[in-house]
Amino acid sequence: MTVWIIEPRDPLIVRDGRPFGPVPGARAVSLAFPFPSTTTGAVRTRDGLDAVSRFQPSEIPRVKQIYVRGPLLVELDAGTGDVTRWLVPAPADALLLDLEPADTTRAILKRLVPLQLPPGAGTNLPEAMALVGMARRDPRKPCGKAPRYWDWGFFEQWLLDPHDREVPLADLGHNGPVRDARIHVSIRPETQTADEERGALFQTRGLEFTHLPEGRALSGARRLGLAVATDGPNLKPGIAPLGGERRLVFWRQSGKMLPSLPDALKEKIAALHHCRLILLTPAHFTAGWKPAWLLEGREGVVPSLRAVALRGCQTVSGWDFEKGKPKPTRRLAPAGTVYFLKLDGDSAAIKRWVDTIWMHCVSDGGQDRRDGFGLAVLGVWDGTFHRMEV
């Protein structure tokens, strides 16, 4: 697959579903990050353009078979515009706590683990699944500056060796695109002047794909973009609209590949016969939070689910251009969700299984996997259920 970079030229608006019409005081509010359906639709539309840049409806059956993985947030080189840093959503099995005395630049990173209930205790979790939390109580408050996106280098360490420690927040990552609010006024088409009689003011809130590290001058701002990997054969670099209000983005091919699977990680998972699976994009499962396709036997391995750490759910819909009507509303397991799995199979089979899952999509439906929902990576878990202390 080839990695393509989508760099917004203007603040990107990814509509959140609230009504937005030609009425005074209307607000177009953006999601915090695009769903895979937004970037996948853009990839397939661009791949299906003819010689004069018009999409051909006859191409719909073909482009729907194009695989897309992503989007992932990336930092871009100021000169070449290529990827210099991969960023991923913060995993749900990590908790940042404030230091005492307070330090706004550092925090305590705590690992959340499957818990063994005290004698006589029980839960209403299905299939005897375990709770996930801190094994030992910690009275410190959650960090108010916990980054929403982690640097890949730090995240890879978390996959290989998750443990409690003090961390500099700047090394961990940052909050990604910032919201940009703008006030607009309706323009009279006949005079190209403001329509002051109706008072048609409206607001748009988009995502500014720029990161300014704390304490840096404006000249030190870093360029951000979206990265997708796809097997689409007809993509071309250039500028095109994306999202609400048809804001412009630049498309260009990257010389980089998606982050690769560390050999040490594969060896550890094969030896432990357990692992964590972390979602990098939201996933759709028929049973809500619980996967089905992922738990099917393949490559000689049968996974079983032992615990899950997730932060609520996300809701997605959209417009079906093929059918000309809204898509059904669906609930998704959000990016950052962590599944704790037991792997039944020999070490060689587990290594093959790991290769088939790493940086692939694990949603239940085949079309959802092609659309980029449920992009996943794997991390170490030794299968231990920690004793819950009070």
Strand content: 25-35%
Shape call: globular
Instruction: Tell me the Rg in angstroms.
Output: 23 Å
Runs in which pLDDT lies below 50 for 5 or more consecutive residues are: none
- Tell me the domain tally: 3
Q: Count the helices. How many?
A: 7
In helices, the fraction of residues equals: 10-25%
Mean pLDDT: 88
Helix- and strand-based class? alpha+beta
Major β-sheet annotation = 9 strands, antiparallel
Question: Could you give the distance between the termini?
Answer: 49 Å
Strand tally is: 29
Any overview of this molecule?
With 390 residues, the chain is α+β, with helices and mostly antiparallel strands. The chain has 3 domains: 163 residues; 82 residues, no CATH class; 125 residues, Sandwich (Immunoglobulin-like), CATH 2.60.40.4350. It is 14% helix and 35% strand. The strands form 8 sheets. Strands 1, 3, 4, 9, 11, 16, 17, 18 and 19 form a 9-stranded antiparallel β-sheet that branches. The protein has a 5-stranded antiparallel β-sheet with strand order 21-26-20-28-27, sandwiched between helices. It has a 3-stranded mixed β-sheet with strand order 2-15-12, with no helix packed on it. A hairpin with a 4-residue loop joins β13 and β14. α5 packs across α6. It is globular and about 75 Å long. The mean pLDDT is 88.
